[in-house]
Design a protein that fits this description.
mainly alpha, Rossmann fold, Arc Repressor Mutant, subunit A, 6 domains, five-stranded parallel sheet, two-stranded antiparallel ribbon, 49 helices, 7 strands, about 5% strand, binds adenosine-5'-triphosphate, activator
């Protein structure tokens, strides 16, 4: 404790003892209410996070919003002087809560011997009220004087119950935090809490950006900046269009000049040589602890080195719950790696080699593999793969495996059956089927000379499993079944999951051939085999396949339950980061879309994107397809258009399975139909995948066929569409593809409606509604747009449905009314059912009731509204132009109309009442 007397001569700066001024566009952060508004006030509220994380602003905003009594003291370096510290502390209490304090006067005159005696007097003089008081010490990391720390510890020991000390700091203050934490006397707010989540970021950005940004881009931005508000501020100030926005976000991975400058200032000159070396050497690591630091730094006291860095308040974040592992903030890591690349002081390759060895010593194979790859060190890669390659595979670490295998010389692979199998499976997973065969043949040639016949037979069996998978992907079910049956008989010697894989292919082949029950049984067996081998990837895959088969059978609830099982398995085995999980999220989002739970569908699609982010955009086709469907269902045209453009580009650039392609095409066609882009539909027809009714024994061939029919329907070529739908229906009925049957009936209802065959249209709609009782389909109905309302109303008015179907129809009408269409013109026709509905409404214009129109006049009104000329109307109704004119005259007279525009207005008004627009 200091011995000099504390009686400073000061001219006070008022801003230091005033709460900060709120920035323009201050965003409320209600999520802190629970932490701040606790019934029993704690002694210490500790707010720690790196610079610019919103510590000061958030706490000021919340304390103000909660109308808490506060005293602020904003610290600077110069406040390390105890006299100055005491004077400002007394002043802030004096100004904010206790105008009668004698301490400031005594400090000025006689002075005090110690900070503790100042604090004792202050505590004694504070009003003893019950109302909570928050004493905020902002920027406490600037305090380095041990006397002040000691005084604060004294204060914490003697705080009255109504007083909470709020410490805002970039570093952990040395105030005996561990004890307070154990005693439950403190609340902590860290970067984890301060980081903006996607909802907050959306609110924050929407306020600042003059253009619309998709949720997907917002989530990506939040992930890249880890919710760091200052980076989001920079992002919003730097982007003027949504394209600039996403470019800025993408660029962050490579580095951003402004952010580098910010870090330059932050790190500044304050580093010792050893600390600098520490930063450069550890920035290549995804995470580190004291032991790791010791190894990469060749230092025998890793802990104290780590502590000295943590005390600097840099962007070092906790990487586990135990507080032993740390990592750099992603943007800070990019900055440090940039510095590393600009220096010759360190040899990056040897850093990575050292890291490989260190991780292997700690038995962290994945990290070891990543560093061995970064070091481009084949021997080390071989070592990692020898020990852990199979585990990477069963766990589904395909992209890591690929990187390892890419870095190995070809000969390393062909001489090793396990490496060859890994290589070939990875290639097949990336749809590089030709490469699969190349790898397998190369190994067979090589191994012929060195292996016994018995060994070769074993290898052949395992190779057959992968050849079966390739045959499957080429759509050759029979060959796949033959090869898989061979493989399933063979014990797996080189890759433990070969038999599981073969069993899975058999299930898939049966599925594709429309043998749904057998396929399901097979996939259940596969799941059990995979479980017994802890082959996580295969377990999830088998469950996803079971879910897909159940969807095909029309059992969407069952499919949902199977997905739940898969999610549980993933959670129990901590697999949430595995790429295969994207498959699970994707099929979950498809069910959610069908059930019209658009928010959940969107959430799942976005989670899929997050999981596959590191693998590259090529894999987002399916997620983008779902997002486009959701955008369409929400009537968000430009967003939907963006996704459609992206999907088109991706399909043009890559080779995808028909399942993905057909699904994407369905969405593209639906979009073009909604915006009436007939040229696009026409063009699509010229390049559309071939369709053969005989092969439509699975959902993707069914979807592909339906796409063709829907395209023809959009172009008015109804007669050509009809036989396609008929054949799809027949195959779906025969094989039990209930979901497809449901969708086929919906399409057929539309087809016959367009052909003005009301009876057939309604019959198919009725069948579709009946099937929907088990499928729960909603999305497929709503895709029809507003015409659905007319058909359903006709069904109801004609008394053709009752019970469950009636209820479903009413619900669908409601949803279709709420749905926003892209097209400005309302496209439904004034069918009898709709006309009746209009006449029955209390809010229709009087003349509609008093001078009723004939059926023909209604038809003509509808066609005028659709934008047809008199000649076109005559042609459409197959009557003479003069007849049309006569009807129009009568219609105008009855409704007291003199211009065509008034007729259009009248029709729009009437239809809008029915459609909910
Ligand atoms: N709730 C909010 N609404 C609007 N802007 C905010 C909000 N929170 C923080 N900001 C802005 O973010 C930036 C950083 O906030 P702030 O200064 O509070 O961070 P900090 O963590 O206290 O930083 P430092 O450690 O540098 O003191 C500021 O420009 C601030 O205006």
């Amino acid at each position: 404790m200091t011995t000099t007397k504390l009686n400073p001569e000061l001219t006070f700066v008022d801003a230091k003892t005033t709460a900060p001024i709120a920035p323009v566009g201050l965003m409320a952060r209600e999520k802190f209410n629970d932490l701040l508004h606790i019934p029993e006030p704690v002694s210490l509220l500790l707010v720690t996070a790196p610079a610019g994380y919103g510590k000061t602003t958030s706490i000021a905003e919340r304390l103000d919003a909660l109308e808490a009594r506060t005293a602020w003291y904003r610290l600077e370096e110069s406040d390390n002087d105890p006299g100055r510290f005491a004077a400002y502390l007394a002043r802030t209490l004096n100004r904010s809560v206790a105008p009668e304090l004698s301490v400031p006067g005594r400090l000025r005159n006689a002075g005090y011997d110690s900070l503790e005696s100042v604090l004792s007097d202050l505590l004694g003089e504070l009003p003893q009220e019950e109302e909570p008081l928050y004493l905020v010490l902002d920027d406490y990391h600037l305090i380095s004087n041990p006397d002040i720390h000691q005084a604060m510890r004294f204060l914490l020991r003697h705080l009255p119950p109504h007083l909470t000390l709020v410490i805002i700091s970039r570093t952990m203050p040395p105030l005996g935090i561990a004890q307070l934490r154990m005693k439950g006397q403190m609340t902590e707010i860290t970067s984890k809490h301060l980081a903006l989540d996607a909802d907050e970021a959306q609110r924050y950005l929407e306020q600042r950006l003059p253009f619309e940004v998709s949720r997907e881009h917002i989530e990506r931005a939040v992930r890249r900046v880890e919710g760091w508000i200052s980076a989001l501020q920079l992002l919003s100030a730097s982007s003027h269009t949504s394209v600039e926005f996403s470019e800025f976000v993408d660029q962050l991975e490579l580095g951003n000049h402004h952010i580098f400058e910010y870090f330059d200032e932050l790190v500044g000159q304050s580093l010792t040589e050893q600390q600098r070396r520490f930063l450069l050497r550890t920035c290549i690591l995804d995470r580190f602890n004291a032991a790791m630091v010791m190894r990469v730094m060749d230092d025998n006291d890793g802990q104290s080195l780590l502590n000295s860095l943590l005390a600097m308040g840099l962007f070092i974040m906790p990487a586990d719950n135990g507080g032993l592992w740390f990592r750099y903030h992603q943007l800070f890591a990019v900055y440090l790696r940039h510095l590393l690349s600009c220096t010759t002081q360190e040899n990056q390759r040897s850093l990575h080699q050292r890291a490989t060895d260190a991780w292997l010593e700690l038995n962290h194979a994945e990290e070891a593999a990543r560093h061995a790859v970064a070091a481009a060190d084949p021997e080390r890669i071989r070592q990692v793969l020898d020990e852990h390659g199979r585990k990477f595979f069963t766990e589904g670490q395909f992209s890591l495996l690929q990187k390892c295998l890419d870095a190995l010389p070809q000969s390393f692979i062909s001489e090793n059956p396990t490496f060859t199998l890994l290589r070939a499976w990875v290639a097949q997973g990336q749809y590089k089927f030709d490469e699969v065969e190349d790898w397998l043949s190369a190994a067979e040639n090589h191994l012929k000379a060195t292996m016994s016949e018995e060994q070769q037979k074993a290898i052949h069996g395992e190779f057959s499993a992968i050849r079966a998978q390739v045959a499957m992907n080429y759509g050759n079910g029979n060959r796949a079944l033959a090869l898989a049956s061979e493989a399933v008989e063979q014990d797996a010697r080189y890759l433990p999951t070969s038999r599981v894989a073969a069993a899975s292919v058999m299930g898939e082949a049966l599925f594709v051939q429309g043998e749904l029950q057998d396929a399901l049984d097979r996939m259940e067996d596969t799941e059990h085999m995979a479980r017994s081998q802890y082959a996580h990837q295969n377990v999830i895959w088998a469950l996803c396949q079971q879910s897909e088969i159940s969807v095909a059978m029309g059992l969407l609830q069952k499919a949902y339950n199977i997905q739940e099982k898969a999610f549980r398995y993933a959670e129990e085995n901590r697999l949430n980061h595995l790429p295969i999980l994207e498959f699970l999220f994707r099929i979950r989002s498809q069910i959610m879309w069908e059930w019209h739970h658009l928010e959940s569908a969107e959430r799942c699609a976005l989670q899929g994107i997050e999981i596959l982010e590191a693998q590259g955009e090529r894999w987002f086709v399916q997620s983008y397809t779902t997002l486009a469907k959701i955008a369409q269902a929400r009537g968000r045209q430009s967003l939907c258009a963006d996704y459609i453009t992206k999907i088109q580009k991706m399909l043009a650039a890559g080779d995808y399975h028909l399942d993905w392609v057909a699904n994407a095409h369905a969405t593209m066609l639906s979009y073009w139909d909604a915006v009436r882009d007939q040229d696009a539909i026409q063009r699509w027809l010229t390049i559309a995948p071939a369709f053969e009714a005989a092969t439509a024994t699975n959902h993707f061939h069914q979807c592909n066929g339906r796409n063709r029919a829907r395209a023809l329907m959009s172009l008015g070529q109804l007669a050509q569409a009809e036989p396609i739908l008929q054949s799809l229906r027949e195959v779906a009925e025969r094989t039990g593809l209930k979901t497809d049957l449901n969708r086929n009936h919906i399409s057929m209802a539309l087809l016959y409606w367009q052909q003005e065959d009301r009876t057939q249209a309604l019959e198919h709609m009725k069948l579709a509604l009946e099937l929907a009782s088990t499928t729960g389909a909603v999305g497929s109905f709503l895709r029809l747009g507003k015409v659905l309302i007319v058909m359903l109303k006709a069904l109801i008015n004609d008394g053709l449905i009752e019970g469950m179907e009636l209820q479903r129809a009413e619900r669908l009408i409601q949803l279709a009314q709420q749905q926003r269409d892209f097209s400005r013109a309302i496209r439904i026709s004034l069918d009898e059912a709709i006309i009746q509905d209009i006449i029955d409404r209390p809010d229709v214009p009087e003349l509609i009731r008093t001078s009723p129109l004939t059926r023909r006049e209604w038809q003509i009104l509808s066609l005028i509204h659709a934008g047809l000329s008199n000649d076109q109307i005559a042609e459409h109704l197959k009557v003479a132009s003069t007849t049309v004119k006569t009807h129009i005259r009568s219609l105008y007279q009855k409704q007291n109309i003199s211009h065509r525009s008034e007729a259009i207005e009248l029709a729009r008004d009437l239809l809008s009442k029915i459609q909910g627009e």
